[in-house]
Predict the structure.
Amino acid sequence: MNEGQERELRSFLRQTEGTPPPVFVGRDGVLDDIALAAGQVWEGAGGGMRGMEKATRIVQGAPGAGKSSVLNEIAQNPERLRREGVPVPLVLMLKSGDIEEPVDILEPLARKVNPSAAGDFLSRYSRTISGEAGVGLGPVRVGGRAEKSAETARPRARWKVFGAWAERHGGFERPIVLAVDEAQRLDHDRKHPVAKLFQSLHDGCGLPVVLVLAGLSDTEYSAGRMDLTRIPAGQKHSIGCFPEQEAEEYMTRSCAHFGIGTAGFEHEIGRLAEPCDGWPRHLHIVLKALGREALRTGGDLGKAEWERIRIEIMTGRDGYYGHQFSAEMKDAINLTARVMAELDRCQSRARIKYLMDGLHESDPRKYRFPVGMDADSFFVHLVHRGTLHEESVDRFACPIPSFRTYLLDQGGIIENPSPTSDVISNDES
């Protein structure tokens, strides 16, 4: 471990959740499909028109699955999206919390596409207080009278205007990937201006721009509320645990990145990673614990106290579970645990909700809902907390086996309980 690697390791250990991992592994299928989407909107559907209908992609998963890591990877290394005959895409990554209206998308996109001409775009196309477009920095009409706008002019919320501006300044030199992180927070109906902007893009507005929405496992539901319809199953990616080989690759490459010599200690490191079930956030916790010990021993793992590392990892993993185990889930622990126990038989959205309602009706005190919630809202809450994750079309599971075990234990349920035949009728099972 040289001085630069030690510095980088210390910086990594200070990072909070949500920061990119030191190395990126796996997710090849997701990256390949985003590259395909960029090629689709660049090549168009024929007739000299770029853009493609229904090219939107969705990347969804539980907290800690690595959704943001996918977006960070394509933003930092867009060459990963290289495809024969198609220029390397330009990638703009936005946080949903920064998007209140269409201008919050078009303005940074203009700066990304052509920084030197972005000022012209912002001054030429502005919006008034009433939401109608004005031109330049001239008068703005308010209640029938003209007033001077003291604010910097803002662009109109239409792709047609954006495309016309781009063509006046050299056109598009490459496809654009517009990636929105934490997209499940875009709780808009189909009439919202941001939804309208996304609809135009999704329906094929003639521009080489593809929309990628990344978020929790109900991101697909949020997209549907915005009327982004008929997204094929192959364009919706549910990400979760790494396969064993990729989990090993993550640890090996991360240690090499920080200059942590692992030769002769592969077995010990494997024992640390094994309980992680390949879950990216748990592997992140393992790497931090190992990194702290490597700093303490000057990089010599021969002096490492492995039991000390294991205790730190267990503490970190319990802390992660404690964070995911919300107050609402604690209030409804019997209901939560029973849902976990029945996931092998109740996997669809409807059947899980039916189970909740049936349990509650059978014993309202024991199987209570959190205050102000019913089966619909509690189901959404469990998705947001990473307790339920849509692995395939309408097939939900707990994404981390050890988290499911943790929740069963909290509810005092032994693994593989007998079926609750009194709750689920033969017609529903």
Remarks:
- Residues 127-153, 425-429 have pLDDT under 50 and may be disordered.
- The first helix runs from residue 3 to 14.
- The chain is about 45% helix and 10% strand.
